[in-house]
Amino acid sequence: MKITGTHFNYYQVCKRKLWLFASGIHFEHTSDLVLEGKLIHEDSYPQRSERYEEIELDGIKVDYYDAKSKVIHEIKKSNKVEKAHEWQVKYYLYVFEQNGIEGVTGLLEYPVLRKTQPVILSDFDREKIEEMKENIEKIILDENCPSLVQKSLCRSCSYFEFCYSKEVEE
């Protein structure tokens, strides 16, 4: 099973969102916040596409990879779920390592906040990633959707209306 960076990110944020996404239920295309994030990605560093590559490798898709400096650049709109972003980049670093590309570091970039954060992969992280991969696979393969866990982030989630709509009882 190919686990993507999106799976890894959603695992950190919401198990239900992970399951829905992995089951082919996508609402990102209807979200203004997701669109805003894509525009930030495209407009914040217009010169990047000339110098760096967007890389797809073993199920992941990295925003920009500077092969000369061995740095993965991941652009995010907001740092509200910064830990999820960090683990997503750590997963990218892990996948690069698994494919024989050593010595790569990551850089989380929040252009709207004018903030950057370096990301490295430790031995502890590698062990944790193995554990998380197993948990992600269990969630994805479960035939039942995880229960709703109400969080403050829910209101800005593209799955909000789906999760909080109630069927009319007869």
Descriptors:
170 residues, alpha+beta, Lambda Exonuclease, Chain A, 5-stranded mixed sheet, 7 helices, 16% strand, globular
What is the strand tally? 5
Q: Low-confidence parts lasting 5 or more residues at pLDDT below 50? A: none
As for the CATH topology, it is: Lambda Exonuclease, Chain A
Record the strand order, biggest sheet: 1-2-3-4-5
CATH C-level category: Alpha Beta
Q: Give the distance, in angstroms, between the N- and C-terminal Cα atoms.
A: 41 Å
Oligomerization state of this entry?
A: single chain
Topology as a string of helices (H) and strands (E) = HHHHEEEHEEHH
Structural class: alpha+beta
Percent of residues in beta strands: 15-25%
- Work out the radius of gyration: 17 Å
- So how many helices? 7
Can you give the helix content as a percent range? 40-55%
What's this entry about, in short?
The chain has 170 residues and is α+β, with helices and mostly antiparallel strands.
